[in-house]
Design goal:
- The protein is an alpha+beta fold and 411 residues long.
- It is built from 15 helices and 15 strands.
- The protein has helices at 15-25, 39-49, 65-72, 77-86, 110-117, 123-131, 133-146, 170-180, 205-208, 215-230, 235-241, 246-259, 302-309, 367-385, 399-407, and strands spanning 11-13, 52-53, 90-95, 97-102, 149-150, 184-188, 194-198, 232-234, 263-267, 274-276, 288-291, 330-336, 338-348, 353-361, 389-392.
- Strands 11-12-13-14-15 form a five-stranded mixed β-sheet, with helices on one face.
- α6 (123-131) packs across α8 (170-180).
- The radius of gyration is 23 Å and the shape is globular.
- The relative contact order is 0.12.
């Protein structure tokens, strides 16, 4: 007699429930610390996010500081950096773009490094390494002898004719290749410069000595982690978290459902099927109030942000100034469980002031309420950045209400 498998029940959620599940999974219902913020709180945030994306743009501050701020409030950035780069608990890697992640993830990311080594990804660097193996080996030997070492301190860092990549030295490219395939690791200095060292000087030997899971197992584990961090998401949402190809992810997700690590779901208004993590909770209310980094997991997958919040978001850093709709460095404003506005923000160190160069409300929101709450949030962000004031420009459909909320005078 042929066994008949029992169909797995599909969970169904309305749009508001999906938003609240997603925000709870990302830590926005966790209690905000009332005392000193320390390593325990950083660990809690990383437990929610899985990683912090790195980026060199610092119109406000370095991008990895902001997701922690959005969940904890003002904290000592120096203490966070000390933990990230010197505790042995975290390491820089390529996962969701350049990121810093718990060292426990290192074995799960080896398959990605193997893909790069074979030339399936990062083909330009792979071609350089294939053409100049002796040069790459010499750079590795210099790291072994001199590390930790910045690219600028290599004995041959100068650009030269026939560079593989405009604007970068051959030495820098060799280091990037060695970093991508896991021969070297990196830490960041106070000014965010990378210094390179052998990976076993950064990731504990006990972790490096763990057996390497096969590719399918590693991908399943990463997708399950993505599910926990997102709470609820489509196949493309979960695949995006650790940059696993969507077609590969779909088969892995089916296996996770079969094993009970994910639950099939449907969400009102979503065209694609969704997956719910068993640990996900659906709170009755989310009382968030914060500005989000463009590189925060809540918004880094732009189609997901639009699906969850009805919030169409594009980063305009690389858009020519005349063509920008909202501004250079625009931070979405999360209030409750909705993205209700956005602010073009700049930390002006010379003027000791946080500049809100453009302030925009989404359609259908109470602009007076949003302006009042945003005013509080801008003061909090300024305090976190060590700036003494906030200056609100007149650009944007919320500027008048925000200026009035701050001064009583919209003019």
């Amino acid at each position: 007699m042929t066994a008949v498998s029992t169909p797995i029940a599909v969970r169904r959620f309305d749009a508001g429930g999906a938003r609240r599940i997603a925000l709870a999974a990302q830590g926005f219902t966790d209690p905000v610390p009332t005392g000193r913020i320390d390593v325990r709180h950083y660990r809690r945030v990383i437990g929610r996010l899985g990683l912090l994306q790195l980026d060199s743009v610092q119109a406000v501050c370095r991008s990895h500081y902001l997701p922690v701020y959005s969940r904890l409030g003002p904290y000592d950035r120096g203490r966070l950096d000390d933990w990230l780069w010197h505790s042995g608990e975290m390491f820089e890697t390529w996962s969701h773009e350049a990121s810093v992640a718990p060292v426990e993830l290192e074995p799960l990311l080896r398959w990605s490094r193997d893909r790069a080594r074979s030339g399936e990804t990062w083909s330009g660097l792979a071609a350089m390494a294939g053409k100049c193996p002796d040069y790459v080996a010499a750079v590795l030997e210099e790291v072994r002898r001199q590390g930790p070492i910045p690219a600028s301190a290599l004995s041959d860092p100068r650009p030269r004719k026939g560079m593989w990549w405009d604007g970068r030295s051959d030495g820098k490219r060799a280091l990037e290749w060695l970093f991508r395939i896991g021969e070297v690791g990196s830490r960041r200095t106070e000014n965010f410069e990378r210094v390179y060292d052998l990976l076993d000087q950064i990731v504990p030997t006990a972790v490096l000595g763990l057996s390497t899971p096969d590719e399918a197992t590693a991908q399943r584990d990463l997708l399950e982690l993505a599910g926990r961090c997102l709470g609820l998401g489509t196949a493309s949402d979960l695949a995006d978290y650790f940059r696993i190809g969507s077609s590969v992810a779909r088969s892995r997700l089916a296996e996770l459902v079969e094993a009970g690590y994910l639950i099939p779901a449907e969400v009102e208004g979503w065209r694609e099927p969704a997956y719910l993590h068993p640990s996900a909770v659906q709170p009755r209310v989310v009382n968030a109030r914060t500005l989000l980094s463009p590189f925060d997991p809540v918004v880094w997958c732009r189609p997901r942000a639009e699906r969850l919040f009805g919030f169409r978001y594009r980063i305009e850093i690389y858009v020519p100034k005349p063509d920008r709709k909202f501004g250079y460095y625009v931070m979405p404003f999360l209030l409750g469980d909705r993205l209700v506005g956005r602010v073009d923000v700049k930390a002006d160190r010379k003027a000791d002031c946080l500049l809100a160069r453009g302030v925009f409300a989404e359609d259908g929101v109470d602009r007076g309420q949003v302006a009042s709450e945003l005013s509080i949030e801008l003061d909090r962000l300024a305090r976190f950045l060590g700036l003494s004031g906030v200056d609100v420009a007149r650009r944007g459909n919320l500027a008048g209400a925000l200026r009035s909320a701050r001064t009583g005078d919209p003019s």
